[in-house]
Amino acid sequence: MRIRRTTRTLVAALATVLLASSVAACGNSDTGGDPGGDETMTLGFSQVGAESGWRTANTTSIKEAAAEAGIELKFDDAQQKQENQIKAIRNFIQQKVDVIAFSPVVESGWDTVLKEAKDAGIPVILTDRAVDSADKSLYKTFLGSDFVKEGRLAGEWLVQNTASATGPVNIVELQGTTGSAPANDRKKGFAEAIAANPNLKIVASQSGDFTRAGGKQVMEQFLKANPDIDVLFAHNDDMGLGALEAITAAGRTPGKDILIITIDAVRDGMQALADGRFNFIAECSPLLGPQLMELAKKVHAGEEVPARIETQETTFTQQQAKEALPNRRY
Ligand code: AHR
């Protein structure tokens, strides 16, 4: 009698375990994960590359925040190639990660792979850079900066600081990666801000691919072709830092003979600004990791999230850079 009762209890317990695991398996087949369950959440992240100081700080922020949040991070470096990002996203889908996040190297050409993720039931978060897909249901949210505003802030500073100029002010522009959201948007914002001042003229504009080497090489060409450059607007600090070498080699003094405006405010850029070699920086924050992990947990749990979340940013003059430098984290 006693033995029979124990057997019945064991059978009941086994049945409960089997039922629970089959329910969990059903959930996984839809979502590729374990929404709300006890398993470690898996986040597949496809990074643009390692083209700039900003990117390195962004990668560190994401890796540290994932470890802090107890999220298993599958990290892929696309080396600035869209085809590598598409491959990485397909791998994440195959591995049935719970959430996919990525910083798209360029804006267009994502619909097919995003549809594949959607069909697999894996939510996608865009970080840092946006895509131009008309179908907004292909991703859950965007977390990053207002790049148009950054370009506009750069242009507004220039308008204010050249107000007394009597003749033409010749500007050269080092664009970021061709087709990327920050290159498109910063160009647009800057052009809008200077539009009402016909003496401010962009005499040359070319991509330096967001790298120091690119910035240096393109600035050398600009200097050869345009003897009277007054201003350099670089879409990021790294290209501005590369351009410094070209400007000095051409016998001109950066920050004095040629005003230099950049975007990002990474440590090396801030140092150049504090030293008087740059004149103004509009900040773009790479510290997206903690917010990204919070969002990933929410979308995994099926919670509603805002369609767009913008980072809080500021601007720096030379004096402000001197004050901020000692506490700059990146
Ligand atoms: O997408 C953000 C931009 O990408 C940063 O401004 C730049 O430095 C980086 O490479």
Question: Could you please describe the fold and organization of this structure?
Answer:
The chain folds into two domains: 42-145 and 286-312, Rossmann fold (3-Layer(aba) Sandwich); 147-284, Rossmann fold, CATH 3.40.50. The protein has helices at 2-31, 53-69, 82-94, 111-119, 147-161, 181-194, 212-225, 237-249, 267-274, 289-300, 318-324, and strands at residues 42-47, 72-77, 99-102, 124-128, 141-144, 169-175, 200-207, 231-234, 259-264, 280-283, 308-310, 315-316. It is built from eleven helices and twelve strands. The strands form two sheets. A six-stranded parallel sheet has the order 2-1-3-4-5-11, with helices on both faces. Strands 7-6-8-9-10-12 form a six-stranded mixed sheet, with helices on both faces. With 330 residues, it is α/β, with parallel strands linked by helices. Strand 8 (231-234), helix 8 and strand 9 (259-264) form a beta-alpha-beta unit. Residues 1-33 have low confidence and may be disordered. The protein is 46% helix and 18% strand. The longest helix is centred in the N-terminal third of the chain and has 30 residues, at 2-31. Alpha-L-arabinofuranose (AHR) binds at residues 51-52, 54-55, 128-129, 182, 210, 236, 238, 263-264, 284. The site of alpha-L-arabinofuranose (AHR) has 13 residues, from helix 2 and strand 9.
